[in-house]
Amino acid sequence: MIRxxxxxxxxxxxxxxxxxxxxxxxxxxLGDSYTIGESVAEIDRWPEQLTxxxxxxxxxxxxxxxxxVTGWRTDQLKKxxxxxxxxxxxxxxxxxxxxxxxxxxxxxxxYAPEFEELLxxxxxxxxxxxENVFVVSIPDYGFTPFxxxxxxxxxxxxxxxxDVNRLITEKMGVRYIYITDLTREGLAKPEYVAGDGLHPSxxxxxxWVERIVKxxxx
Length: 218
Known about the structure:
It contains nine helices and five strands; from the N terminus they run H-E-H-H-E-H-E-H-H-E-H-E-H-H. The protein is of the alpha/beta class.
């Protein structure tokens, strides 16, 4: 009898372990240079850091699937998503896009519908679960050595783009995580800027992750 109970316990535990592996969450991070982590090591990218933090808190999540390239605008990200033929199977989806629309002098009016379309797609890829999607605000590169000469102009434009993406995100009932204020410490704290003098460093991305984790309620 004891042997049978032991065997049943072993089989049950084994099945539970297999089930846990099977239901591990997939994380999709959509964006541009900030999401791909331009000029930082792979482990310092914020989606990678977030994954490690979530795992440390007991969340069973796979390494992030990142769709992002330095220089991408909203329309380019949309095209890449379409070409990737993704399935609606992600337990967590992030969206951070717009800095290149601003940098390349594209209008906020054009950005708005393109961002909204991308957010609808992000929700779709999360299986329609809005609570599993979050938007990250656009960083302010005016507070970097690269952007310093035009800091006032850049900051004003970044605020305009963030006003738009925040409004759309809140209207659609999706979590919005504001990190722009953190990036405005870049000139006062050079360690928050990567070696290229433009993108965030791993230390800056760690601050983002702290805020994201808190927003996720973990």
